[in-house]
UniProtKB/TrEMBL annotation:
The keyword Transferase applies. Keywords: Transferase. GO terms for molecular function: protein N-terminal-serine acetyltransferase activity; protein-N-terminal-alanine acetyltransferase activity. PROSITE patterns: GNAT. Gene3D superfamilies: 3.40.630.30. The keyword Cell membrane does not apply. PANTHER family: ACETYLTRANSFERASE (PTHR43441:SF10), RIBOSOMAL-PROTEIN-SERINE ACETYLTRANSFERASE (PTHR43441). GO terms for cellular component: cytoplasm. Residues 14-177 form the N-acetyltransferase domain. This is Acetyltransferase.
Amino acid sequence: MPRTVPEIAAENGFRLRRWELTDRELLREAATDPYIPLITTVPAPYSDAEADAFVHRKWRRTEIGTGYPFVIEDPAGQAVGNVGLWVGELPLRGCATAGYWVAGGHRGRGVALTGLNAVTAWAFGELSVPRVELYVEPWNTGSLRTAERAGYRRETPVPAHQEVGGEPRDMWRFALP
């Protein structure tokens, strides 16, 4: 597995790239979202120091071989979201896990779908990952639709799969192939 995050061209002029310290504005917007900080490591409340620490953690995950966190950048060069591929359990479970979020002001434009399609194609092509899973809370209709539109199959509910806001939450497991 590569120890760097590549740049990946995506549909409609979008691209995936590694996180940079200059991505503070995306993190500032994401930190104000009522949900993103609960289910991710996005710092809330926001501070520049916490934003920088977040980016350094993202870099470290790739360096140690556990994952590939990408910024989703729109055709104008603006950072609008995040998509990640986590490969740390690949040797044990035979699958990687994907996840995504989009800052509130950029939702409804297919950003998550574009990012998920690009990272999934990269996982199956470049990395030869045999299976990619993702997990979505049952109420999150936007993420459920994104997973389905990307071709992921809804498999089974997984009780208490992930802690969200300090409480275990049930999730739907989706997978390809």
